């Protein structure tokens, strides 16, 4: 299906059980064809030395160029 999953768990709490800190995210494959992926204006495909990050949260999809 091309969808991956990353989970990080914080340190164990004082009682030996999982702590409350952690992060959980799902990822999807990049694209081989512009018609299949997200096409940003600047930084697409690493042109201009900019990295584009696309993420989705409860308010929708967002793009960030670094």
UniProtKB/TrEMBL annotation:
Stretches for region Disordered: 1-21
Name of the protein: Uncharacterized protein
Source organism (scientific name): human gut metagenome
